[in-house]
Amino acid sequence: MKRTREFDQRKQVAIVGSGAWGSAIARIIGRNCQRLDTFHSTVKQWVFEETVNGRKLTDIINQDHENPKYMPGQKLPHNVVADPDICSATKDADILIFVLPHQFLNGLCEKIKASVAPGCIGISLIKGVHFDEQGMVLISDMIKEGMGGMDMSVLMGANLAPEVAAGQFCEATIGCRDETNGTLLQSLFHDPNFHVAVRKDVPGVEICGALKNVVALGAGFVDGMGLGDNTKAAIIRIGMMEMKRFIQSHYPEVEDATFFESCGVADLIVTCYGGRNRKCAEAFVKAGGKKSFDELEAELLNGQKIQGTGTAVEVVKILEAEGKLEEYPLFNSIHGIAFEGKPMESLFLDIDNMGEMVESLAG
Ligand SMILES: NC(=O)c1ccc[n+]([C@@H]2O[C@H](COP(=O)([O-])OP(=O)(O)OC[C@H]3O[C@@H](n4cnc5c(N)ncnc54)[C@H](O)[C@@H]3O)[C@@H](O)[C@H]2O)c1
Ligand SMILES: O=P(O)(O)OC[C@H](O)CO
C-alpha cells in the first residue's frame, strides 16, 4: 500500500558524503533501514560527482551497487540511492549523516537547510576541528549553526573504513546532547559487528576523533624513522595525555570515561597502526621531507583525504592564541616537523625537554 508522507512515521535518512567512510557506513545504514520499521527503507546518498573509468560515479553506484573509487570490492545495499544533487539527496530528510572531509562543508548547509523535514536531526562522522576569531569551533557546531540550530550528535571510534566495510567486529561511540536522539541514532548504526555505545558528551567524543589524527602523524614519523613498538607506544601514551589535557582544558565537563570508549583509546591505537595519516607521515620521513603532505596524499590515497595535517595547524593556532603551546610538546613538534622543516629528532628532544612539565601536568 502506498503511504503518503503525511501519515508515514518512518524516518527518512540521507547520507552526505561518499568517500571510504561514507561507503562503509552506507552498507550498515542501508541494511538497518531495510530491517527496521523506524526508518524509511530508501536511503539517499549525496555523491560528489566524478568520472570513474569513463562513467559517472553516481551511475556506477546505482547500477552496479558499488563505489569502485573509494570502497572497491564491497557491494552497497540496493536501497542506497546515489544522487549528485545535494538538494534532492537531502529533501525531506529526518536524519542527516554528515560524512565528508570537513574542508568540503563550505556552503553545503545553506543549500540543504530549506529542504529537510521539520525537526530534522543530524550526526557528524567528520573527524576535525576548526579555529576562528572566537576560538575553537566544533565541526558539529558549525553544521548546527549552518542548519539553523538542528540538534547534532557525533559518531567516532576505532573504525578503519575498509575493515568496517568487510564486516569485521568493531566498536564506535555516539556523543549526543539529546538522549532520545542518541538512542534513535544508536539503533540506526548498531549492528552485530558494529557495536555502538552512547555518551551524553559531544565535545569529548568529537575532539578525541579530531586529535588522534595529529598523534597518528607522530606514529608515522616513528615508523618512517624505522623505530619500533616501544617508541610508538610512548608517542601513543603522550598523545593520549595531550589529547586529554587539551579537551578537558577547553571542556572541563568532559569525564575521563569518554577516553576509555572506542572514540578515545581504541581510535588512537588503530589510527597509529593502520590509518592513512600514519601512512602519509611514514612516507614523509622516507622522502626526506622533500615531498609535502599534499603531494604524498595525492600519490598514495587515490583521492582520499587525510585530516591530521589540517587539524595540527588548527590546534597549534588555538594553543598559540591561548599562550599554551609549550604545554603540548608532542603536538608542537609534530606540527614543526610537518610544516616548519624541523628535524625528526625534535619529536623526542621536545618531549625530553618538556618532560618535567608533561609529568607535572599528568595528574
Ligand atoms: N576513511 C576512514 O577510515 C574513516 C573512518 C572514520 C572517520 N573518517 C572521517 O570521515 C570523514 C570523511 O572521510 P572519508 O574517509 O569518507 O573520505 P575520503 O578521504 O575517503 O574521500 C574523500 C571524499 O571527498 C570527496 N570530495 C572530493 N572533492 C570534493 C569537493 N570539492 N566537494 C565535496 N566533496 C569532495 C570525494 O568525493 C570523496 O567522497 C573524514 O572526516 C574522516 O576523518 C574516515
Ligand atoms: O585513515 P585515517 O588516519 O584517516 O583514520 C581512519 C579512522 O579515523 C580510524 O578510526
TrEMBL record:
For this chain, one GO molecular function annotation is: glycerol-3-phosphate dehydrogenase (NAD+) activity
Annotated Pfam families: NAD_Gly3P_dh_C, NAD_Gly3P_dh_N
Glycerol-3-phosphate dehydrogenase NAD-dependent N-terminal domain location is 12-180
EC assignment: 1.1.1.8
List positions binding substrate: 127, 276-277
Query: What are the positions of the active site?
Result: 212
Keywords, A to Z? NAD, Oxidoreductase
Q: Which GO terms describe its biological process?
A: carbohydrate metabolic process; glycerol-3-phosphate catabolic process
Quote the record's binding site residues for NAD(+).
17-22, 48, 104, 161, 276, 305, 307
Which InterPro entries does this entry report, sorted A to Z?
6-PGluconate_DH-like_C_sf, 6PGD_dom2, G3P_DH_NAD-dep, G3P_DH_NAD-dep_C, G3P_DH_NAD-dep_euk, G3P_DH_NAD-dep_N, NAD(P)-bd_dom_sf
Domain Glycerol-3-phosphate dehydrogenase NAD-dependent C-terminal, residue spans? 201-347
- Specify the domain of life of the species encoding this protein: Eukaryota
Q: Name one GO cellular component term.
A: cytosol
Catalytic activity reads:
sn-glycerol 3-phosphate + NAD(+) = dihydroxyacetone phosphate + NADH + H(+)
**Family from the record:** Belongs to the NAD-dependent glycerol-3-phosphate dehydrogenase family.
- Protein name from the UniProt record: Glycerol-3-phosphate dehydrogenase [NAD(+)]
Native source species: Guillardia theta (strain CCMP2712)
